[in-house]
Amino acid sequence: MIALTLAEIAAAIGGELVSGAPEQVVDGSVETDSRLVGAGSVFFALLGEETDGHRFVPNAAEAGAALVVTERAVALPDGSATAQVVVSDGYAALAALAHEVVARVRASSVDRVDGQGRPAPLRVVGITGSNGKTSTKNMLRTILEQHGATVAPQGSFNNHVGAPVSMLRITHDTRFLVVEMGASGKGHIAKLVSIAEPDTGVVLKVGLAHAGEFGGIEATQRAKSEMVTDLPATATALLNVDDDRVASMRAITDATVVGFGTSAGADYRISGIETDRSGTRFTLTAPPVRPGGDGLADATDQPGGTTRFPETVDVRLAILGEHHAMNASAALTVAHLWGIPLAAGAEALASMTRAERWRMELLQGGPEGVTVINDAYNASPDSTAAALRTLAQIVRPGERSVAVLGEMAELGEFSTEEHDRIGRLVVRLGIGQLVVVGPGAAPIHQAATLEGSWDGESVYIEDVDAAVHALQEMVRPGDVVLVKSSKSAELRFLGDRLGGVTE
């Protein structure tokens, strides 16, 4: 975090400084987990569903926290030098501090220039969508960090706690801030947008992920649209125009709209998508004239005065799945709008070996001749369908495709219908063997059994332990095995075991 005095922090978060000198300067990390606190950290004691962060204030103090932010005064260990600010709402205070820090860094960077004398203000991007947020965030970070100090969250740090904590990692040297914005209800993304005030807001897809929490696809669309509704006219809304629900957001934003996708209406046009076991390939073409709206780089602001528009690049990803062409194109487009040539972005992406742990991760260190795609970090109807299509595409003649599928969670009233749809898709794609794990996923097995003339190609197994034993007997050389589920640590590690990962 940037250096602030205790008095400045207390004022920013509307709190009362109950211990500590107002002029004391704090510039350590901001944590909500006392186990991560180190010397000089700021610890927010938040009230959670399962625990109360106030219980761990003494631990944070003993670990060297410079400041604890609490909702009630907590006794600190004798002799502790830790300061304390009391606020009425810890979550609101965390958001307020993040907003203050981002605003200060933005203001201090207005006149900043890079090594070639070009403007280099802080640029902030927010990314949301039912699928692909984390992969797109990782891809964009990979591109941007080649061109300036970049802050982006690790993993899926994208909620009302994780996103502000990520924002608070910036310093006055930060050039790019990438914020992944997730939501489980109305107003969540709007709040994160109000904290970060993005220069560019990206909407990847509106799908049925978390539909049970949102209350249906229309409610999901309204929630995701919060990314663009409050953007000012000086900002850019980057929309996936292949998704009609996302494309319709053009009508509800004052920002300049830039579209990406495979359709004719895309400003940044994707073509020639191919995927095989070596990864994913496609071509991305920028528009013939620069989309305006954010006052960033001109058409000739690259070193040597080279023209940026139009520009076409062949992209080579060592990442499985044609759906990653959309994620990569979103990342490339943001970077391009911020002055980074498509070719430079594509070169950076070529260095990525995976989008994220347990996301379409190709593993070949298990039984001889067996290839595993471990995609068990999470699962929605759209992401599961995409993973199954990838499995079908990369199987070579003489090999057998095997899909190990667990439950797609948080679908609410749509759960049975969507699991049924996936079961039927497995058959229609010609997947050689289906293994369904757990009661929540049982409709996949039932639907696959009823679809077509299968005879034993679908197996239902009650739990992961039994699935481990069954797969040890079932898997044979030449198999390509996909493991896919919603946040099942057991299935993630099942995929690792099959793929020979022991970490």
From TrEMBL:
Organism of origin: Curtobacterium oceanosedimentum
Family annotation (InterPro entries): Mur-like_cat_sf, Mur_ligase_C, Mur_ligase_C_dom_sf, Mur_ligase_cen, Mur_ligase_N, MurCDEF_CellWall_CoF430Synth, MurE/MurF_N, UDP-N-AcMur_synth
GO cellular component: cytoplasm
Enzyme superclass (EC): ligase
One annotated GO biological process: cell division
Sequence similarity: Belongs to the MurCDEF family. MurF subfamily.
UniProt lineage: Bacteria, Bacillati, Actinomycetota, Actinomycetes, Micrococcales
The keyword ATP-binding belongs to this UniProt entry's keyword annotation: yes
Domain Mur ligase N-terminal catalytic, first and last residues per copy: 30-86
Gene: murF
Residues that bind ATP: 129-135
Record region (Disordered): 286-308
Main subcellular location of this protein, as a coarse class: cytoplasm
UniProt name for this protein: UDP-N-acetylmuramoyl-tripeptide--D-alanyl-D-alanine ligase
Domain of life: Bacteria
